[in-house]
């Protein structure tokens, strides 16, 4: 049984209840985690019967589509016990890349990703409209105007997040989508009735739908109708399972539900950067936020070549610049440090090791680090330096860098303060709020790292004064 993960793409909005936890549904608005008045969703009462007719099997006898105060959801229609299978969706009623016509599939090489192939499936079904066998499902997917992935942001909107690594990640993904689009157009150009249907705008829309909704599977990526209505609870242990023997996806309840309870599953753990890029929303105070921080060895460092060689010898990523010279520029991922008194979990050991190499000021110090690595587990500079002053200096390098970033983040956040102009669109207001939550979360991570590093240096200074 294969466990698969997924997170939804929704239109987030502000609620007048600040202490309530939000959950997100793939085809609906955010939901609240407590019990809300439950009514049947009359607009979708025919969806499950349609899916079961198409499947030739029962998908669920325990769930019904309903509406909470904030949109569509799945609710228990009968008593559910922990361990009950609450839904089963056969593979043949899931959309996957192999739904493409055989003659088209044969033209798409392995260099074209599963997401792009599935996006092509979605586009072709969209173009068929009511003639599509999948019309009841396709028609319930969000429209382009409802999507807020950063790949849809204007240049001015992207400027709001330039401080974050998400800015470059967005540009990279836009380039990837464009590359995939032209690869597919070129592959199917002998079928003008198909190639003419695939416009770049439609492809971006479909690509974003798949990125935010598809579940990983042995078929590559799959869109699973009806499962799209399940909302997220980060504390839930229920997940989507793929059974390749029975050729179906299923969900097993992790707790008891009484009729009228909203049924929840877990999608995954993602930072606001990932949520913004792939799903088009953010959450306030996201505990999974992280910051990508870059370091390099200055060209004026007299030991630069030796440091690069040692880093390369011990399998630290290096690369060649445009002139063919070896260089080192790497990105380290920092997560929030929960306590200044603990071991600094959240600050990667590889970053602290790099700082130790960076602060070395003699060939002997570098040789000592290399010898120590060879005598232990092969990892370079993973232990505190014996020279306390040098260990403090290494971590002060990190403090200086994080403090610089903190100042830059604070300036970026300050620039996001909205004006009182009534001309600001709802879309811009929403994306500005996303940028605010993204930058605030990453600033919180940086401040936690800086606080731990300062405390570490203070502790070392105290120890050194007693020696």
Automatic annotation (TrEMBL):
GO terms for molecular function: protein-lysine N-methyltransferase activity. Transmembrane segments: none annotated. SUPFAM superfamilies: RuBisCo LSMT C-terminal, substrate-binding domain, SET domain. Keywords: Methyltransferase, S-adenosyl-L-methionine, Transferase. Residues 57-268 form the SET domain. Pfam families: Rubis-subs-bind, SET. The keyword Zinc-finger does not apply. GO terms for biological process: methylation. It comes from the Eukaryota. This is N-lysine methyltransferase SETD. It comes from Trema orientale (Charcoal tree).
